[in-house]
Design brief:
Pfam family, one: Rce1-like
Strand content: under 5%
GO molecular function: endopeptidase activity
InterPro entries: Rce1/LyrA-like_dom (IPR003675)
GO biological process, one term: CAAX-box protein maturation
Order of helices and strands: HHHHHHH
Distance between the termini: 60 Å
Number of helices: 7
Shape: globular
Keywords: Membrane, Transmembrane, Transmembrane helix
């Protein structure tokens, strides 16, 4: 029961309204991530400028869904529930263990999802470029959560990164083409 109470306490504490400095941390995290991830993603030919054109209502619906999953769901699980918040007095070594454990689970959850319940992600979520960027994303979310203690900051950061990838940097095209290719392979030829 103590573990459940601790996790519930972490959730409650993480829902505090972000402070003005927390918003600056979000902006700085986004800029630093972009400065690292964009050159890396373009150099690996994983990212390319290819904006998607959705009907505004479809785009809004997709953005709301992406806020819930993956952003809110993954940040609650991999940051808030697994990483001790800044208010818990733990040794740096114990904190580092939980942060590393959380990051490893976060990264491997993507190939597992692609191989089980998210076929659009297979094989993209198993490839080195995606996993490299996911690792940097997870590290950035960990740092943002640790500095702020807020769930909203890493959720918004994660959401922004996914939205930019999907709708501006060819992510949606990659996933759609992947599903289309799988569908074509399943369709009997006449």
């Amino acid at each position: 029961m103590s573990i459940l109470a601790n996790l519930l306490n972490r959730l409650v504490m993480a829902t505090a309204i972000p402070t003005p400095s927390d918003w600056w941390i979000l902006a700085a995290t986004f800029l630093v991530y972009g400065a690292i991830a964009l050159p890396l993603g373009f150099s690996m030919n994983f990212l390319k400028w290819n904006p998607i054109h959705f009907h505004p209502l479809r785009l809004l619906g997709a953005m709301i869904w992406l806020f819930i999953t993956p952003a809110l769901l993954e940040e609650t699980l991999f940051r808030v529930l697994l990483i001790p918040p800044p208010t818990e007095a733990l040794s740096p070594l114990i904190w580092l263990f939980w942060a590393a454990f959380s990051l490893i689970l976060f990264v491997i959850s993507h190939p597992i999802a692609a191989l089980t319940y998210n076929p659009a992600g297979n094989p993209i979520f198993c490839q080195t470029p995606f996993l490299s960027l996911a690792t940097i994303l997870g590290l950035a979310c960990t740092i943002a959560y640790t500095l702020t203690g807020s769930l909203l900051i890493p959720v918004l950061f994660h959401w922004l990164v996914v939205v930019v990838w999907l709708f501006l940097l060819d992510g949606e095209h990659k996933l759609s083409a992947n599903l289309q290719a799988k569908s074509d392979n399943l369709t009997p030829s006449s």
